[in-house]
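# nightly structure sweep
# worker-07 picked up a monomer target from the shared queue
# config: single-sequence mode, recycle default, output format = structure tokens
# input follows
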Amino acid sequence: MALDLQNEETTPKLSFITPNLCNDGHDATCKGVNTEGTHVGGLAGMDLWLKHWMPLIFNSPAYKSGNTLVVLTFDEASAAGPTADYSACCNEQPGPNIANSGFSPLLGIFGAQIKNPAPGVYPGGGKVGAVVFNPRFIEPGSVNSTGSYNHYSALRSYEDLLGIHIGGDDGLGHLGFAAAHGLLPFGKDVFNAVHDFEKKD
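# output follows
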């Protein structure tokens, strides 16, 4: 991946980069090794991972040209204790093969969740934040507090940004629930520098 980032031509149009358990902030001490080759996990391990990978991305020609959108986010909110959040954001529907997107069989085994819950008891993984980077369309340091987006809104946004406008479940290039009628992709609350860019052109 680091070599691919050195040239815009070899940078993938879409990448999903996920750290392992030593780098994702999950386990405080891990059996494997983190980015730096130690067993430090938790937030310290995650910080090391970000310090390694984010400069590689931000210094890449594809990012500097404004042709790369970077979304840094989490897979779930707090899953245990009094701050546990199993809500589903923004009218997000459960997937076609699961009625409880926020149910964890592991948490069920340890009694942190109800085993075999009725549909809709754990509809999602809670509300999580995201940091979105793009030097061309997003004002650095800006904060969007006007609305929320769900996973399908994100997918619809990525399909639109990739220029996929035919096929899919709606004939407009959107797959699955990303094709839902009325679902909105990221708007000017996210791409808040678009008007500045349009004025310059």
